[in-house]
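Kindly go through one protein, given below as sequence and tokens. The question is how this chain folds according to its tokens.

***
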Amino acid sequence: MGGTELKTDSFQRWVMYRKDAYGSGRIFVSTEQKEAVEEGKKFSQRAYADVWAKDSALVRRVRAFLGTNFYWHERLAKNGADVEVIETLQSMIRGESVVLIAEQSRTGGAMGNPVPKPERLPSFRSSLMNDCGMSYDAATAYIDRYNDIVDRANAVADRYANAESSSLADAASDLTETATPLGDAQPFDYAPDPVSGDTEELAASTNNPDFAAKMLGYERKTFGDMIHAMKYENHLRGDDNVIWHDNGDVYFDGLKIDNMHSYCNGKDMDSHQLAHASFSVSGDDVSPTFWTEYFGVVPDVAHRKGDAIVDRDGQPRGIARRTGVWGVRSKSVVKSDLLEPHLRYLVEHLRLPRADLPELLRRGNVRMRFFCYWDNEAGNRVPDVPDDIRSMMEAMGGIVEVDEYR
């Protein structure tokens, strides 16, 4: 998928990409690509939002990019203030839901001082060699085989998306004739082989939820529910970009914050709904006991910042909660594929609005939101958030956020 030009300076042409389009969805992203993403983040961080906001052509390009690629920012793209539009883009670049890439040098010369290489995680190739006894060539063949399947799948998808007349059956035939599942691969030669220090290392990680689901062994819709639950409990935004590793660990802004396997447990995974919602208050000083007494309901989520994250058996994973969260969900009570019934239930359950709530939020530096799961795989569903509920939340100092999955 092509990018959108942000700006061109005396050295570089900077291009914006939605992260899941950058690298064509490959799990094994190269070191060069990672460094390009980091360079774009640094360029964005050095920029002043109010200066970029004065460039009307740049702002128009950013509005078009956000409105086209991120449905939940449609209102911002159309009506938001110029500075707000730029600050949103910079935030998304920091979180890596958007990547900014220097694609073309205008002078052909090197830019400034070289960027120091970040400290690398142990590579997937090293894990295959050390843990599975593979030779260097065998491990490389395993990685190349997977990436070749991804490339062929992307090529077939592009060809049939642009064809005037074709069928899914033809596309499936193309894939099955040219690609063999990794599980059917023949054993590699495990003979020892020296490792070249000049060869690029590739890490077993991805920011693409489709490939993360396959890597971790979950059905895609189930994994979408798990992602939403993980972002809810960590008070991440729907468009915050995370990195999944092949052991289930989740990284955000370079820090390990959770593990996905903690979210595949129990009745919430038994059936898939196309919509549900949750209410939460969050902040570094959130006291679950206070908010339980205030609302007078039993929470579905209640933890303080620094509490240990545990696995399905209650054993600590060695990760601490990044912030405090107290919240309740609608999913187990309301059975509807529309958002309005879920939101109406939460409003009644929590007896909203409350006159004293805005002041409590302000004094405690607490954030409040309705976080809505919205399955839009077909691409033709519009989230039905009632205007009165959105207005009520805004009046109390909260937000309504739709976390859409396609």
In short: Residues 264-405 form one domain.
